[in-house]
């Protein structure tokens, strides 16, 4: 195994030339490389040739990029990310970039360059629509969650997978940022000026904190399936005819509803943000209705496909009972709502914000959009046991949100 060294662009270029056949026959002097990362944790280099041949070299730093060396972080996250993406690409080859090479020692993965796609967050902030996105994400979620669980895997194999994806440091980030910080006066929080009193209300909402404790405990203990672990709008690349899920370094065995809820939470963050992003009211209302339809289709697409897998591919006969399977799906639904609520709350007052809210230029509108995100987040967490179906959720949403 190679000895780790943090790459400069010329190192990433040389590494890509040495470890893939992509640039064979090309004069290395005609290749270029720049660091293009904009995420919170890692370096991302793009190596390219004028002919159009290119690759992405992603390298983990021994610390969190967004904070610096004062926040050390395991390099093992690069192994976890590459191995999780390889499993995802076996299950959903069209929905994950091709991995050309990975090296746990150098904490490097070389993968397909998706520069012909755009990051979903950017596109949604601009109010763009992607016709394939929801069907593709329903498929990605149903297939990765079902086929990595005890419903499908042999019990020895599943336990080996749980061990392979023990990811304590990255899980700790989620445990803190999702379930701890927003509910206390934590120094990591990032609260908009003028929003302090509203944020402080979370710290004293005992009913909410009890429900968040329940969701956190499930995140800590429910090893249901191999989660991607960070399905936010910055982890999805889109094109009109294609969807690709990246950045699986938070992968671990956890509750299925966490991935589904994280994604729905991000659609709802955009829904709230549009209050201040899209000026024309008619256009905004139409776009927001489309987002609600998408959430509806996402859950029904997921539930339909997951149910098909349950009936056709459940291997353990003792798990093959309709009565229990419908209870399982009900539990995933309730978790989905709860984790969607947590995502809305943590992205509004916690450390890691989103452009859907932060980029609203008008301060009053930004605070109003943030308020909507908290109201929806709280309602989803608190009411997740009473909201029986998506019609109930959408009715609650329309009732609570400012149009
Ligand atoms: N396969 C890829 N193709 C093109 N650009 C990529 C690719 N992977 C990452 N990027 C770019 O790098 C950015 C950060 O990548 P990401 O995997 O989210 O890093 P981090 O782990 O630091 O969050 C993305 O927003 C995107 O701009
Ligand atoms: C200090 S990590 C904060 C936040 O960032 C991660 O996302 P990404 O690296 O894709 O930007 C993850 O959502 C973490 O919660």
Automatic annotation (TrEMBL):
EC class: transferase
E.C. no: 2.7.1.100
- The residues that hold substrate are 230, 346
Q: Which family does it belong to?
A: Belongs to the methylthioribose kinase family.
Which residues of the sequence carry a binding annotation for ATP? 42, 58, 112-114, 247-249
Q: Name one GO molecular function term.
A: kinase activity
SUPFAM superfamilies per the record? Protein kinase-like (PK-like)
Q: Which UniProt keywords apply?
A: Amino-acid biosynthesis, ATP-binding, Kinase, Methionine biosynthesis, Nucleotide-binding, Transferase
Q: In which pathway does it act?
A: Amino-acid biosynthesis; L-methionine biosynthesis via salvage pathway; S-methyl-5-thio-alpha-D-ribose 1-phosphate from S-methyl-5'-thioadenosine (hydrolase route): step 2/2
Quaternary state and partners of this protein? Homodimer.
NCBIfam families per record = MTRK
Q: Which InterPro entries match?
A: Aminoglycoside_PTrfase, Kinase-like_dom_sf, Methylthioribose_kinase
* Aminoglycoside phosphotransferase domain location: 33-290
Q: Which reaction does it catalyse?
A: 5-(methylsulfanyl)-D-ribose + ATP = 5-(methylsulfanyl)-alpha-D-ribose 1-phosphate + ADP + H(+)
Stated role: Catalyzes the phosphorylation of methylthioribose into methylthioribose-1-phosphate.
**What's this protein's name?**
Methylthioribose kinase
Superkingdom classification of source: Bacteria
Among the Pfam families in the record, one is APH
């Amino acid at each position: 195994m190679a000895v780790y060294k943090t790459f400069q662009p010329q190192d990433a270029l040389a590494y890509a030339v040495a470890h893939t056949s992509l640039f064979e026959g090309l004069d290395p002097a005609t290749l270029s490389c720049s660091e293009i990362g904009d995420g919170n944790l890692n370096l991302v280099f793009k190596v390219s040739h004028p002919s159009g041949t290119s690759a992405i070299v992603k390298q983990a730093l021994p610390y969190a990029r967004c904070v610096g060396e004062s926040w050390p972080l395991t390099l093992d996250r690069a192994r976890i990310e590459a191995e999780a993406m390889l499993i995802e690409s076996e299950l959903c080859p069209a929905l994950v970039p091709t991995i050309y090479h990975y090296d746990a020692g150098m904490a490097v993965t070389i993968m397909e360059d998706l520069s012909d796609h755009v990051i979903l967050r950017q596109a949604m902030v601009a109010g763009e629509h992607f016709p394939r996105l929801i069907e593709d994400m329903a498929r990605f979620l149903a297939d990765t969650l079902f086929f990595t669980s005890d419903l499908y895997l042999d019990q020895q194999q599943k336990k080996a997978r749980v061990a392979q994806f023990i990811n304590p440091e990255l899980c700790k980030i989620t445990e803190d940022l999702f379930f701890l910080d927003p509910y206390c006066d934590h120094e990591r929080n990032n609260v908009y000026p003028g929003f302090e009193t509203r944020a402080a209300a979370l710290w004293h909402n005992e009913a909410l904190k009890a429900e968040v404790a329940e969701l956190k405990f499930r995140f800590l203990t429910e090893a249901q399936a191999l989660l991607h672990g960070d399905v936010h709008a910055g982890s999805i690349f889109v094109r009109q005819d294609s969807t690709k899920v990246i950045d699986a370094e938070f992968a671990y065995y956890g509750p299925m509803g966490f991935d589904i809820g994280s994604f729905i939470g991000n659609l709802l963050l955009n829904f709230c943000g549009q209050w201040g992003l899209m000026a024309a009211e008619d256009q905004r209302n139409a776009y927001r209705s489309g987002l609600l339809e998408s959430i509806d289709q996402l859950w029904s697409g997921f539930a339909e496909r997951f149910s098909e897998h349950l009936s056709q591919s459940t291997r353990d006969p003792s798990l093959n009972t309709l009565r229990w399977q419908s209870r399982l799906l009900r539990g995933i639904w309730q978790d989905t709502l709860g984790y969607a609520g947590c995502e809305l709350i943590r992205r509004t007052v916690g450390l890691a914000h989103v452009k859907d809210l932060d980029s609203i230029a008008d301060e009053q509108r930004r605070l109003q959009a943030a308020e909507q995100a908290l109201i929806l987040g709280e309602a989803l967490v608190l009411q997740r046991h009473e909201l029986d179906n998506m019609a109930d959720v959408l009715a609650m949403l329309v009732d609570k949100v400012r149009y």
